Fold:
Amino acid sequence: MLFIQVVLPVFVIIASGFVLEKCARLDFRTLTLTSLYLLAPALVFSALMKREFDLSLAGNLFLFMILYTAILYALSRGLAALLGLDGESRSALLLTTVMMNVGNFGLPLTYFAFGEAALEISVLTFVLFNIPLGTLAIVIAQGSRSSLPTALANMGKIPIFHGVILAFFFKWIGWTPPDFILRPLDLLGQAAIPLMLAMLGMQLARTQWQARVGFFSLATAVRLGVAPLIAWGLTALLGIDGLTRAVVILQTSTPSAVLPLLYSLRFGGRADLVAGTILMTTLFSAVTLTILLYLL
Structure:
C-alpha cells in the first residue's frame, strides 16, 4: 500500500512528463526558468513564512548536511581512487552519489508520505542541500577550471536563497506580509511540486546514455544503498528523531540529482555516465524508497 499511495504517484507524474516530452518537444528552458525563478522561490518563501522557524532544527539540519555531504564525498572519492577511475569518470561518480534529487523528487515524495506537517522540514532540507548542489557540484563538474569564489557567486544567483533570506529577515523583524502577497505566493508554490516532477520526466526523455553496467551499478549502490545508511546513522548521532528524522532520511535517499547533468553538459564532463546513473537510480528508487518507507 505504501508503494501505491506514496511512491507510485511520484512516478505517475514523472511518466506524464516523459510521455509529454516524447509526443511534443516543449520549451524546456522556459519551464526551467519558470520553476527556478518563480515557483520554487515562492514555495520556499511561503512555506517558511507560514510556520514558526525553529533555529535548533535549522542548526541540526545544517550540521547533518555538512557531515552527510563530506562522508559521501570521501567515500566516493576513495572508491574512484581504488578502482583507478580517470578524472572525468571520478567527477561523474561524485556528482551522482553525493548530489541527490532533494527537490523535484524529494519534496513531493515527503509531501505524499507525511503530508503538510512535513513541509517545513522538507523545505529546509531542500534549501540546505542546495548549498552543495550550487557550489560543490559546480566545482566537481569543472574540475581545476573552477574556483570556489566563482561557485559561490553562481550560488548567489539562485533565487531560492533570496526567498530564504527574505523569509528569515521578515521573521527576525516580526513582520508578516499581508494576505494579498502571501496568497498568490502560496498558489505559485503549490504549482512547483508537480511541475518539478514533470520536468524530471521530460529531462529523462531527453537523456542520451551509453551502457556502462559496472559504473552504473556502483553509483546506484552508493546512492540508493549506502547513502540511506549514512543518513540513518547521522540522525541517530545528532539526536534527530520523530518526524524530522523520517523526513530527512527519506528526502536524502532519493535518486541522483538532475542538475549535475546540466553542469556536465556545460563543462564537457562525462554527461553519458551522469545521465545513465540518473535514469538507473530513478528507476531502482521505486524499490528502495518503498522499503525505506516501511522501515521508517
